Amino acid sequence: MVDYKGKVALVTGASAGIGKAYATELAARGCHVIVVARSKDKLETLAKELSSTYGIRAYAIPVDLSKTFATRLLAEQIGKLNLNVNILINNAGFGTHGRFEEISSEREQDMISLNIASLVDMTHQFLPYMQQQKDGIIVNVASLGSFQSIPYMATYAASKAFVLSFTESIFAENRHLGVRVLALCPGTTKTEFFDVIGTKEMPGGINGTPESVVKAGFRGIDKGRSYIIDGTSNYWLAQSARFLTRKFTAIMTERMTRPASSKTATSIPTSDKSR
Q1: Fewer CB within 10 Å, N- or C-terminus of the chain?
Q2: Do 156 and 262 contact (CB within 8 A), yes or no?
Q3: Where is the composition biased (Polar residues) (predicted)?
Q4: Sorting pLDDT into bands at 50, 70 and 90, what band is 198?
Q5: At residue 275, does pLDDT exceed 70?
Q6: Are 98 and 47 in contact (CB under 8 A)?
Q7: Are the C-beta atoms of residues 88 and 36 closer than 8 Å to each other?
């Protein structure tokens, strides 16, 4: 079991959803927390609540991590606070839903920047200190979609496939260096996301909660896993891709995720829905 008391944890996408649940659970376990997202008001409110409830230090740093050099500036701000990050929860990101050609190229590029480039850069920024200390935790929030294509969420699923592959490689590189690295793969989670994108039919149903996802993340770290999937049904859904052709899986998923209107493309931050 990991001793979290007194450690400094950095949680991105912390204003709602999985990020907020992660920050709350880390604080409950005695961590000082740095919460990061774009919403200044929500972050400051959360930081005050965590400090007063759990008696830890909480810092709110509003920043848009999709912007160039944002991670470097964040690291500089953390340095000015004389803090070193022991635990990194890379949760920030967002997804889009709709026909690929109807989603703006700019929005897709923003998603790639946040879901992939920012996550990689955050790992670059904070991993070396953990290696020096021979102690640390990195959790990269991937998705059940990391294991298969998702029509109408094509770029999102591909970005999460990157997160899974990247994380497993970093896990292997650091497994003897005292740094635990985990890809946390939630399935569909009960938040606002599916109301916004206009579909209730997703593989496996919509069953998870931010709290259940976070519990899975802690289990994965305790067990020294390279990845963990939230929920037994989600696990078997991911494994089913091994026994079905990729073509068949893509076609069946397309039928489940087809937008109610082919003219509607939507997006929402991962911190608000997290999957």
Answers
A1: N
A2: no
A3: 259-275
A4: very low
A5: no
A6: no
A7: no
Domains parsed from the chain with CATH numbers: 8-273 (3.40.50.720)
Both tokens assigned to 78: 């953390």
Contacts of 167 (CB under 8 A, 6+ apart): 138, 140, 142, 181, 182, 183, 226, 227
CA gap 32, 54 in Å, rounded: 10
Cα 143 to Cα 42, 103, 163, 241, 249, distances in angstroms: 25, 21, 9, 14, 16
Structure tokens given for 46: 């959360």
The answer to whether the CB of 253 falls within 8 A of the CB of 238 is: no
Cut 0.85: pTM above it: yes
Q: For residues 102 and 234, which has the higher predicted lDDT (pLDDT)?
A: 102
pLDDT band at 206 (very low <50, low <70, confident <90, very high): low
Residue located via tokens 């399935």: 187
* Residues 20, 158: Cα–Cα separation, whole Å: 25
Residue ranges of alpha helices (H) inside the chain are: 17-28, 40-54, 70-80, 105-112, 119-133, 154-174, 193-197, 210-222, 232-240, 246-257, 270-273
Q: Among all chains, which residue has been given the structure tokens 């998923």?
A: 253
For residue 249, give both structure tokens.
């899986």
Distance (Å, rounded) from C-alpha 275 to C-alpha 271?
9
> 3-class DSSP state for residue 232?
helix
Phi, psi for 33 (deg, rounded to 5): -125, 140
Active site residues: 156
